[in-house]
Here is the input.
Amino acid sequence: MLLKAEWTVCSQNLAVCERSRNPVLVFQCNDRHVICLDCFHLYCVTRLNDRQFIHDPELGYSLPCVAGCPKSLIKELHHFRILGEEQYNRYQQYGAEECVLQMGGVLCPSPGCGAGLLLEPEQRKVTCEEGEGLGCGWDSQSPGLSEKVGDGEVEKQ
Here is the structure.
């Protein structure tokens, strides 16, 4: 089933849901924007597909008010269960990946692995037991990492 979002523009020139269905989700922004659950589901799936959730150090992986209001991240993360089991699992995986990256870690690039790897400051090599050590942790854009070494190990400079 394809859902179509029905939006209107409020007096502050912000997009809000114009469906008058119950129940609705009320964002905790100053304008208290409202969105019906069908539109909220579509908003969540779209943002998840585009990896546009925001990692907040205190809240975790969340979304702001659909109108983009400041300081409006959803605090009740269980609301994202509206995504359904498969998409919610993907939400949790992306959130965990973002957390590892924010902590300065890397993700195993081995196909089907994606394990989070955290390096100690003095550590010169990293391998992933889950990904069988294949190229784990190597990122040519990461400062301090040199080329691949041996069987997928990474050497820090």
